[in-house]
Amino acid sequence: MTMAQALFYLMAFIALASALFVAASKSLVRSVFMFFVTLMALAGLYVLALADFIAITQIVIYIGGILVLILFAFMLSGRETLANLQQQDNRFISIGKLPALLLAVVFFMVMINILFKTDVNHLLWLSKAIAHKNVFSPSDATVSNIGINLMTRYLLPFEAMSILLMMALIGAAHLSRKEKKA
Amino acid sequence: MIPLSDFLIVSAGLFCTGLYIILSKHNAIQILIGIELMLNAAVLNLVAFGKFDRLNNGGQLFALFAIVLAAATTAVALAIILNVYKKYKTIDPGKIDELRD
Amino acid sequence: MENFLQAIDTLTIRFALAAVLLPLFAFVINICLPGKSNKAAGWVSTLAVLVSCALSVFVFSRAWNQHQVHQGQLWFTIGNIKLSAGILLNNLSVLMLLLVSLIALPVHIYSTAYMNNDENYKRYFTYLSFFCFSMLALVVVDSLVLFYIFWELVGFSSYLLIGFWFTRPKAILANKKAFIMNRIGDVGLLTAIIIIYVVFRTFDIEQLFGANALVRSTAFQVPGGWQYVACGGIFLAVAAKSAQFPLHTWLPDAMEGPTSVSALIHAATMVAAGVFLLARVYPIFDSQELVVLAVIGCFTAFMAATIALTQNDLKRILAYSTISQLGFMIMAMGIGAYASSLFHLATHAFFKCLLFLVAGIVIHQVQHIKDEYQLDIDPQNILYMGGLRKKMPLTFIACLIGGLALVGLPLTSGYLSKDGILIQSFEWAEGKSWLFKLIPIGALITSWLTAFYVARLIVKVFFGEFRLMQFNPHIKLHISDGAWQYRLTLLFLAICCLFPLFSLHPVLYEHAWVFSGFSRITGLDRVNIYHTIIPAGVNIFSILVIYWAYAVYVRQKALPFPESGLLFKLSYQEWYVDKFYNRFIVMPVMTLSKTAQWIDRNIIDGFIHLLQRTGILLSKIAEWTDRYIVDGLLHLIADLVLGIGNFARNFQGGKVQYYLFSMLAIILAIFLFKILI
After folding, report:
1. Where do the domains of chain B lie, and which CATH numbers do they carry?
2. Is the Cβ of C221 closer than 8 Å to some Cβ of chain B?
3. pTM score > 0.90 for this model?
4. Is residue A117 part of a domain?
5. Across the interface, which of A31, A84, A107 has its CB nearest the CB of B19?
6. Which of A41, C105, C292, C496 is within CB 3.0–4.6 Å of A15 for a Cys-Cys bond?
């Protein structure tokens, strides 16, 4: 077992365990912080999938942006909101949650089943990519290539994304402003 | 070398956990977290497959787009949640049913 | 001359009509008067009768012993039957007209005082006026149909007046009894009228029974037994109205009415209607039927006299004496003493009315004593009275005159009429078998019995000591003759009971103008010895009897009959006629009607109830079917639709997570489907 594999399983375990903890946690704040752990573990997994730029982006946007935004949102809304938010039944398994759990488990089994049926490791296009040496190797520098592709091949999605982002920002700002007395 | 199927299994597990959170929680913020979890599972898939596209970087770039979109979604969703709370004094989506007959 | 006569006749007719209709006007006015005891009612009725009386006197003076006046006009036509309504004035009707109004006048005056304290004063005079109208109309009408109508009205108003105090159960029983008895007679009369019409095709009284009586003519012959049926019907009518055996029992009971009513109706006028009817239809009877009449009359007279001997109720004694005297009249009709019968009717009306009014005053006074001292006595019982002679001298004298007239002692009107009957009855029996002799002998005994009970009555009431004081010594008597209305009427009637009103000759009945008005015998032919022997014998013996009674009841001599004896009981129980009727007629009828009622209630009603229950049951079943099967089907459909709707609605609960769950479940299902197949 190589070092990379060991790290992968560690990261995978951490990610899954922390995700389950998020699902099971009674405290909202704790689950948010545990979600932070999940995201970090996922960033690790991205690195192990040879996507270091994505991993950095993950850390910057998710952890630096989204999580902070979430925390910021309900820290801003005061004690009462917090108390209200935490006042709920958070047991992991209860009668009300049983159907959801069942569904999730069955879904998982179906996915695994499909995974094994399709035999993902020996897909046709994967074999072709390996044959054409179109595969990342751990020593590759990826960032420059991503930059070139972003500005050439994927320029239209990039521009669309930027407009969408701007719309989202304006929308969020509009929604969260204090309403004047209409 | 880490087999692709392992990534996909982890991704499936995260996805199902997210699914469970969305279905079972009575708190809009937790549901939002569940959605993020599912998005991340998808991103993980993209990244895992993106390993086999060195020239075009399709998987990684769409993972990037997905992350950015998730950020935007979260911002808007949080704004909506806060407004809903102001109006209904609850953020349980099961109880926000005023459009019902 | 002819025209002049007709004009005079027309006036007479109009006056007679006015005399008849005035009480009717009084009746109508009284109905409209306000208040229960409006004193104006008395004056209205009395005034009407007063004017009526004056008109009657005028009419009488015009028509008595003149040619008869008969006017009428067409009333209505049914097919080819023409019915006329009119007035027939001959000796008989004008005499009755005068008599009725003349008796009614003092009774009205008397009543204004007698009923003064009654709370239904107005109703009393209303009824009284109605009665007077009916009776006056009865005597003057010319058609049998009208006669029947007024005959019924007389019976009806009598019913009203007997039951005047309708809160007393006895009065109700009495007026029911009177009504039913009268109905029996009415049926008889109606039968007779129908038979007469069928045979003679007319209702006109004058044509039928007048001078050239159709019933006597040979052109018409009543077929077979119908003659007897018709006469039997008339006899029933007479027996019911004039209280002859066997229909006499209502009259004593009718004494439940006010005493003034008894005086007017049950002594003087209504009961005379029977005799009047006989006089009207007299030609229809043949000799055999007349014998039956005589026998019945004589028997009734004798029976009633014996009953009167032992009764203790003042008014009952007088009632039985009335029956007895009516029996005399019927008997007189039967033996052919037509004139004497009517003469006796006239005289009897006055003295019996007088006696009843006297009784009324006495009862009134005793009633006052009873009310004042709260005594538990019957105010009509003569055993409690006595010695009233000193307290009420005028009443005593009046009673004495009336009583003597009833006994038929000389110088009174009763002597004239009664001795006439007796003499004629002996004449009638002359030359016939001994059985026929029983009738005059019975009449003779009856007149002696009359002397005895009259003496007993007067002695018990007016002589001796006031017996109520012997039981209750603390009573203070302050009784007197009473108000001027009493004195006036008693005086008037007492004078009418004396001979000069009827005959200037005190002992010879043939001289009496009433007698000569009807008698076909002209001139005096005292054909036999009876005319001397009988009056003398009767009167001497009567005086002896009166003295005997005086001795028994004042001097306390031994009673002629022991009180426990069979004869006494027979008399006291009124010959058991009422008991017999109760046992053999009333009881079976009651039983029959109870049976009928039982059948009606349990069988006929039961059947109807069964039908009803079946109907209800059927409708309940129908209702059940309708509710649970027909409606149930509709409800089932409706519920089904509702259920489906609600089921579909559940998916639209507004819960976002639920939607998501459903969506995922479906996706999962598709996946599983794909995988497994």
Report:
1. 4-90 (1.10.287.3510)
2. no
3. no
4. no
5. A107
6. A41
